Amino acid sequence: MSWRHVLKRFGMFLFVVWGAATLNFFLPRLAPGDPVRQRLFQMSTTGGFTQTGVEEMVAEYQAKFGLDKPLYEQYFNYLLDMARFDFGYSLTLFPMKALTLIMDALPWTIGLLFVTTLLSFVIGTLLGAIIAWPRAPKWVEGLAAPLLTLAAIPYYLLGLILLYVFAFSLQWFPLSGGYEPGTRPTFSFEFIVDAIQHSILPALSIILSALGFWALGIRGMMVTTGGEDYMLYAETRGLRGKTIFARYGLRNAMLPQVTALALSLGNIVSGALLVEVIFTYPGVGSLLFAAIQGADYFVIYGIVFMVVLAIGLATMLVDLAYPFLDPRIRR
After folding, report:
1. Which end of the chain is more exposed for a tag (fewer CB within 10 A), N or C?
2. pLDDT, tens digit, for every residue of 65-77?
3. Position 6 in a domain
4. Residues 6 or more apart from 271 whose CB is under 8 A from it?
5. What is the pTM of this model?
6. 89: β partners
């Protein structure tokens, strides 16, 4: 692989990040209303201060957040801030900074989704490949129907079912949250066990739903590679079935799976929004949901920008790794 190819891919990565960041800036501003004025009027209607001073506070907050400047100036300031990962202050939780809120929620989401994504990828890929393998045991074919069913059920619906059965009815697991209320997050053994207990049901809902997706994807690719010349050649050479399955069939069917895995790992930063909301899990998905409800522009900007950055970086790395996975791509 030449340095020219690497620089070209890196330039494309920067272009994609810039384009997505630009859309991230302009799209929320197409929505009607002023988030600062809307938030302050909501506070005034629930008590706390009278409406006579709302307009003065709106002007002060707009100056504080830079919303009183021309749009083009806001845009260039926004690009500079994004380059420094300075997403500004939260509109709804002022004076908290958006980056602080995101960094507090990010470890919960990464811990949950990184493990569940890798587990579902490995298990689902192996099950799907074995189902498509002609020499597999007959009972393995019976797994296709359950996996197809799981792929058709949204993960948040599975979450509701698991929540009702195992948390509400059987009371084996906690109903909500990332840890017991009133507990201070620490790196102690007791807190880690508590956090794992709270994450089992959200993780299980994601894994069960994703198993079918990975299994069906690799199953289709394995069926396609089954009739290729190199597969027939391997069989005529008298190679063992395990060797043909792993080195000739599964390896050549993995490229689309790896691409999908890279996109899934990039999407980890955004969190499993509905699952986190259902289980009140303190991750980025719950933070994004609250930010959308409160029209908190800067938190939304920060989360979406980090998602775009993660997906673009993951895609670029996989694109660069393709020639090592399949030597034919080098030519």
Report:
1. C
2. 666 677 778 788 8
3. no
4. 105, 109, 113, 283, 284, 285, 286, 287, 288
5. 0.71
6. 97
